[in-house]
Amino acid sequence: MTDTASDDVASAPADDTSAKAEIEHLHRTARAIAIVVAIVSIGSFLAGRGLVEGTVGMQHLLGVALLGMSGSGVGALTSLLGRYAAGFKLESGALVPPDAEGETYDRRISFCFLVRPVLGLLVAPLIVAAVALFFKTHEDFKGSSDAVTVVAFIGGLYAKSALEAAKNAFKVVFRA
């Protein structure tokens, strides 16, 4: 265990062994999830970039989707690391450290970090298609592997925000 983990466990009440075990478990799961998400992000970026380079049709679409998965994985990893640095929220509702502020890491959110890259996988192809519409000829954009890579990655990175914005827009449009 690192000094941070030792400090967190030490901050639990002396007689609360279940809190200490929960803190140790949160440290282990956060680290394991960070490693899995990093590996998935790197692998999907390399595979996606390889598929986008000089392919067409479904292979190109798969490459775009994998690049989006990579971007969304980076978003999940950034969020996970921020929450991990801020502290933990135990099942009892107690914060560790007690003065933790902002979004903290807890057991319920861990699954979301593993699934979030899937959002980018689904949203990035739509973002790439939408951006292509702004070009006089779609091939000006789609013919550039670099442009497609950047847009797909950023589309994945902001997939969660894009879905939330679309959901809010539909609520506004269909309420009127």
Describe the model.
- The protein has one domain (3-175).
- 77% of the residues lie in helices and 2% in strands.
- It is built from seven helices and two strands.
- The protein has helices spanning 3-11, 17-52, 57-86, 107-132, 138-142, 145-157, 159-175; strands at residues 88-89, 95-96.
- Strands 1-2 form a two-stranded antiparallel sheet.
- A hairpin with a 5-residue loop joins strand 1 and strand 2 (95-96).
- Helix 2 runs antiparallel to helix 6 and helix 3 runs antiparallel to helix 4 (107-132).
- The longest helix is centred in the N-terminal third of the chain and has 36 residues, at 17-52.
- The N and C termini lie far apart (56 Å).
- The mean pLDDT is 88.
The succession of helices and strands, N to C, reads HHHEEHHHH
DSSP strand content? under 5%
Estimated helix fraction: over 70%
Number of DSSP-assigned strands: 2
Helix tally equals 7
Please give the largest β-sheet. 2 strands, antiparallel
Q: What is the number of independent domains?
A: 1
Q: Describe the global form.
A: elongated
The pLDDT mean sits at: 88
How far is it from the N-terminal to the C-terminal residue, by CA? 56 Å
- The assigned structural class equals mainly alpha
Placed side by side, the strands forming the largest sheet appear as 1-2
Q: Rounded to an integer, what's the Rg over CA atoms? A: 20 Å
List the uncertain runs: none
